[in-house]
Amino acid sequence: MSRCADPGGTVGAFLCQAGQVLRAAGIEAPRQEARLLLAHAMACREADLLRDPRATVPEAAARAFGALLRRRAAREPMAHLTGRAGFWTLDLAVSPQTLIPRADSEAVVEAALAAFESPAGIARVLDLGTGTGALLLAVLAECPAAFGVGVDLAPGAAALAARNAAANGLAGRAAFLCGDWAEALTGRFDLVLSNPPYVESAAVPGLMPEVARHEPALALDGGADGLDAYRRLVAALPRLLAPGGRAVFEIGAGQREAVEALARAAGLVPLGARRDLGGIERALTLAGRPA
């Protein structure tokens, strides 16, 4: 292990030592994450740390940083430590009761917006398994005339999504319910969104530690073949989609053909899949069968 040149107690020393700890724990970007944690502990920006690496870290911030560092070295997700995650144009609160929003899921938002000629064509939106509310709120942010409903089985998740709507100025156009997918819903929607659990049960323990140990199994485990949630979702879509409506689901790598087959069996029309930044088919768009 290399030595840290800065004297103990300075920003530079804390960052150097923390980088070594995180590297030893298998964190991919240890120096960057050390800066994020120290900035969070000191309630400042990363740029402030870089501007004066010889500044002394206050005692209270040092204690807070030490606690955060131990948790991150144990592979607790960064978003759980800071309580925040960015998604689309939004700043969202997160909790252990919800999946952490990821950039890959932005493909769902892109596909949803591309499925209509203009945002004016999206008036009513439904997000099933809403979690933090990320998908629904991102679409509402782009469609100023739309109203959305988010549903989650976990009461804590629905409550968190409502707080995120308020924090992002969207509370007046969003409602959140606790429920079992669309079981209690009536009415039709122009757009139905979902990022359901789609990991095969046997594969869940082998996910990266941040996910397998700390994110809710309810939002990950898609059953033996990873398709349990899709079976229920496609069965509900014919009664949920308004004429001309679209559904966009997040899917796992290699799941497109299987989900499309389920959709066709339910009388739906697959319209194509959008790839995420890694090139994986991530967002599947479906339509109701024409009359």
TrEMBL record:
Keywords: Methyltransferase, S-adenosyl-L-methionine, Transferase. The keyword Cell inner membrane does not apply. It comes from the Bacteria. Residues 17-83 form the Release factor glutamine methyltransferase N-terminal domain. The keyword Magnesium does not apply. One of its GO terms (molecular function) is nucleic acid binding. Belongs to the protein N5-glutamine methyltransferase family. PrmC subfamily. This is Release factor glutamine methyltransferase. It comes from Neoroseomonas alkaliterrae. The lineage of its organism: Bacteria, Pseudomonadati, Pseudomonadota, Alphaproteobacteria, Acetobacterales. The gene is prmC.
